[in-house]
Design goal:
The chain is of the alpha/beta class and 355 residues long. It has two domains: 276 residues, TIM Barrel, CATH 3.20.20.70; 67 residues, Antifreeze-like/N-acetylneuraminic acid synthase C-terminal domain (Type Iii Antifreeze Protein Isoform Hplc 12), CATH 3.90.1210. Helix content is 37%, strand content 14%. It is built from 14 helices and ten strands. The strands form two sheets. An eight-stranded parallel beta sheet has the order 3-2-1-8-7-6-5-4. Strands 9-10 form a two-stranded antiparallel ribbon. Strand 5, helix 9 and strand 6 form a beta-alpha-beta unit. The chain is elongated and about 100 Å long.
């Protein structure tokens, strides 16, 4: 199923942001980076993900050599963005084509975020939808290039003011006819749970009712993955979070705030469970309640023996279970009417008891 069909069917869409975490997994397992990337895609698929997302960039075209890091220095020791990105920019079109094909084989959607115009062009051949990073929400050339592909776009809105979001949305809509997805995101690595600001999801829903709204998360995974579950309850249908096979890997890359297979399974199962308990919201008695409703509701019952021809008064009636007789709200119209047959004490009244 494509992105929109999956959302319609499941009610949510989970993107595992593998990014470039496969490099450390390859080192750890003694396999090649492409083998590690495929392994992570497989584990993501097995544990409930709908898409596996990577990042496509070259350090030299992304950052200046002295550009400072944007992460918590206690969690990662590398000083500059250039130093970090240079470690993880070895893949090119050949590798992403292979990952795209592998995704089709195992049934998971391949996505890679383009960080330059060249990669946006060649990734177009291997993807059914695009993801644009929060960092490029003001990058007019890249927004225009991707929008002109006229494929579904998922745009993160981290660190953005309303006017910046509005500008990006209008620019994309100028060239792209697909329904746009906006992800709430906090650009803080990692994001303390108290900074998650999940109510922004509702603000995006209010401002952009024509868009699909989601959430890209950078908090440390909590035991029950309540941050992501809460985001979904608040209206985030598309959920994106960094993914690793080993959260204990420190000092490099995104492993330290990523979810692992167990976390992913918790999210996938949790969102499915939330769907089962949400129901339709329709203000009606459920089919499953009918038997109990009839058992515990009350009906009009004769408090005393009543001969035929008796005018019914309130003191002759008591309301008891079960509820398969005349309910109190209906029996009120029979007060003051005469019975046409004898009624024994502790008997359900019926319409046939009256003229």
């Amino acid at each position: 199923m494509n992105y929109y069909d999956t959302l319609a069917s499941k009610g949510f869409y989970i993107i595992c942001e593998i990014g470039v975490n496969y490099y450390e997994i390859a080192e750890q397992l003694g396999i090649t980076p492409i083998e590690a990337a495929k392994l992570m895609m497989l584990r993501a698929k097995e544990n409930g993900a709908d898409a596996a997302k990577f990042q496509t960039y070259k350090a030299g075209s992304l950052v200046m050599k002295d550009s400072p890091g944007a992460w918590d220095r206690n969690d990662i020791s590398i000083e500059t963005q250039y130093e970090l990105f240079q470690l993880y920019d070895k893949f090119g079109e050949k590798e992403y084509a292979e990952l795209s094909e592998y995704g089709k084989e195992i049934g998971i959607t391949f996505i890679s975020t383009p960080f330059d115009l060249e990669s946006a062009d060649y990734l177009d051949s291997y993807m059914d939808l695009f993801k644009i990073s929060s960092s490029d929400i003001s990058n007019i050339p890249l927004l225009t290039k991707v929008a002109q592909k006229n494929k579904p776009i998922i745009l993160s809105t981290g660190a953005s003011n309303f006017d910046e979001i509005e500008f990006a949305v209008n620019l994309i809509k100028k060239y792209n006819s697909n329904k746009l997805t906006l992800l709430h995101c906090v650009l803080e690595y990692p994001t303390p749970s108290s900074h998650a600001n999940l109510n922004k999801i509702m603000s995006l829903k209010e401002k952009y009712p024509e868009c699909i709204i989601g959430y890209s998360d950078h908090t440390y995974p909590d035991k029950c993955m309540d941050v992501l579950k809460t985001a979904y309850i608040l209206g985030a249908q598309t959920i994106e979070k960094h993914f690793t096979l080993d959260k204990t890997i420190k000092k490099r890359n995104d492993h330290f705030h990523s979810m692992d297979c167990d976390d992913l399974k918790t999210v996938s199962d949790g969102l499915a469970f939330i769907n089962t308990i949400r129901g339709s919201g329709e203000l009606v008695c459920l089919d499953s309640e009918i038997t109990t409703r009839n058992s515990v509701r009350r009906s009009a019952v004769s408090k005393v023996s009543i001969p035929a021809g008796t005018v019914i008064t309130e003191d002759m009636v008591i309301y008891k279970r079960p509820g398969n007789g005349l309910p109190p709200i209906e029996f009120s119209k029979y007060i003051g009417k005469s019975t046409i047959r004898d009624i024994q004490e502790d008997t359900l009244f019926s319409k046939e008891d009256f003229e």
